[in-house]
Amino acid sequence: MDWKHPVPRIAEAEFRGRLGRLRQRMEQAGVAGTLLGSTDSLRYFTGLVWHQSERLLGALVTADRIVYIVPGFEQSRVETLPRLEGEIAIWQEEESSAALVASLLGPKGKLALDDALPLFVFHALADALGAERLIDGAPFIRGLRAIKSPAEIALIKHAMGITMDIHRKVFSMLAPGVAASEVVKFIDQQHRLAGADNGSTFAIVSFGEASSLPHGADGDQVLAKGDVILVDTGCRLDGYHSDLTRTYMIDGVDSEFARGWAIEREAQQAVFDAAAIGMPCEKLDDAARGVLARRGLGPDYHLPGLPHRAGHGLGLEIHEAPYIVRGNATPLASGMCFSNEPMIVFPGKFGIRLEDHIYMAEDGPHWFTTPAGAPDDIG
After folding, report:
1. Separation CA 158–CA 240 (nearest Å)
2. Phi-psi map region of 298: left, alpha, beta (phi>0 left; psi -120 to 50 alpha)
3. Of the candidates 84, 116, 146, which is a domain's last residue?
4. Which residues contact 78 (CB under 8 A, 6 or more apart)?
5. How far, in Å, CA of 143 to CA of 140, rounded?
6. Are 241 and 225 in contact (CB under 8 A)?
7. What is the pLDDT of residues 297-348, one digit of tens each?
8. pTM of the predicted model as reported, rounded to 2 decimal places
9. Per the structure, how many domains does the chain have?
10. CB-side exposure of 111: number of CA atoms within 13 Å?
11. What confidence tens digit (pLDDT) does each residue in 142-157 have?
């Protein structure tokens, strides 16, 4: 794809560095191999992009090899795709992909599994290798992926900038009578024009009471005068996501919405202010709920209030570690990226979600985008 921006794709040297760190963790854990499925972890470590199906296509990583596990009829396709160099081992339709993995791994040693592998792959591997030789690879796969490199942060930052610019265009084109479906189509077109991977990854456009549903309402809506407007959308660049939400009113802001918007912005800022290297993720969720409780909302997940976690990690997946949620004691570390979106829902009336993302550096938190400044603007 001819990108319309100067941010480079992830380079081969970075993929090799990722594999080196994976192998270090494998050695520390006494693991002979790691099996990656058709998942974003396959893309993260090898650059190969493949969509999940009923056939296993992935890669076996050992101390000194990368072996792509490929259905025979897909070999020629895989050979044309960008990826790190490695061997290709094929299996035919009547054969067992699990048996192929077992033969490559050998009779001894544990196999770490990509945590996003489907259950049918696990069961086949358990039969071929014995369940006692299988371990969860998530602790080191997810741990590595949660720490973003400068190249990853640059891609996310540019993707966020594209989506923020589209939010401004949406704000300028809205008027009573416009259908939500028209706005969704416009957002997708604008993402495509900006060079995103295949347009929008998603777009939620909600008016009025529908804004109180965190992931939107079924059916189309038409904007009426005095409606609350919630727009949540994102795209991908080289696989890395943007994800931004704005909630506002046009043609005048009523006092009830203005008060709720101010509380939402205060809660969002409290999350940012609580973010520090070494701080447990759950403390950021606590900070948001503390603001709401002091303003008479909640507590906990009660409504009116915050019905879900305060944020989620973001990278090659739109929702990934670290999760900003009660009970997650994972300490924040430099390179972690996550959303800040302590939505407030007023049932039967409206919802307010202001979503920006944070990346952690040694000197603390940084915004990917500037938060909104007023209930009739988007920042």
Report:
1. 10
2. left
3. 146
4. 48, 50, 57, 68, 70, 88
5. 5
6. no
7. 999 999 999 999 999 999 999 999 999 999 999 999 999 999 999 999 999 9
8. 0.96
9. 2
10. 29
11. 999 999 999 999 999 9
